[in-house]
Amino acid sequence: MFTDSHCHLDFTEFDADRNELIKRCAKLNINRFIVPGITAKRWPRVLQLCLKYPSAWPCLGLHPWWIAKASEDDLMLLEQLLGKHDLIAVGEIGIDGAIEDIDKQTEYFVKQLHIAKKHDLPVVVHHRKSHQLIVPELKHVNLTKGGIIHAFSGSYQQAKAYIDLGFKLGIGGTITYPRAIKTIKAVKKLPLDSIVLETDAPAMPLEGFQGEINSPEKIVNVFSHLCNLRDESPEVLQESIENNLKQMFNFKVQN
Ligand SMILES: [Zn+2]
């Protein structure tokens, strides 16, 4: 089976045919979705969605793009929700080097890392032009459960820095673009136990699908690109990826 380890199924882009989409995914053997919440306002929607669809697993966090509006109250609410619900991770959190206010982004990133550590949970991390800002904070907080570097792009050395900290790399549409030479080179060499797959749907359309709404169905395409880059058989790759996820996340029965 396949898991889309990062897709925003709660987004309005999927409102028109979410039921059908999940059925189509099941036909493709895509039976698990990790759905990260991005703002406190959207968290209830993510929780509701994951109650409705047992194949969807929630994690909640304050995404760096919306940190300007985030407050201490949001962090308190996050702690409360972590106590109440079976959340599998804290995320999506991170630092985005391409947008403003790195100080507040860093402050909220670190605070959420500490919350994850306190609750013994992994984190789902957004990065862009920010490996040099994220790695030192991860080293400093030293999470027990590690996490996923979502939509990893970068060199093998950058990947290795995360792997050494107990992280796995979310491999997505980036490897379908031949121009992503550095990332493709890194993905060829990654230890098998550090790879998970994701689409980031509705964002990040694959090569050949630019301008379209991305879909978790495309995890199959990402997987076939991965197969072309790796020496292992598709069976071995698929099984290892699922094991990597089960090792990181506690997929227990939701209530
Ligand atoms: Zn995302």
UniProtKB/TrEMBL annotation:
The keyword Hydrolase applies. InterPro entries: DNase_TatD-rel_CS (IPR018228), Metal_Hydrolase (IPR032466), TatD-like (IPR001130). Its EC number is 3.1.-.-. One of its GO terms (molecular function) is hydrolase activity. Keywords: Hydrolase. Gene3D superfamilies: Metal-dependent hydrolases (3.20.20.140). SUPFAM superfamilies: Metallo-dependent hydrolases. It comes from the Bacteria. The keyword Hydrolase applies. Belongs to the metallo-dependent hydrolases superfamily. TatD-type hydrolase family. PANTHER family: D-AMINOACYL-TRNA DEACYLASE (PTHR46124), HYDROLASE (PTHR46124:SF3). This is TatD family hydrolase. It comes from Thalassotalea fonticola.
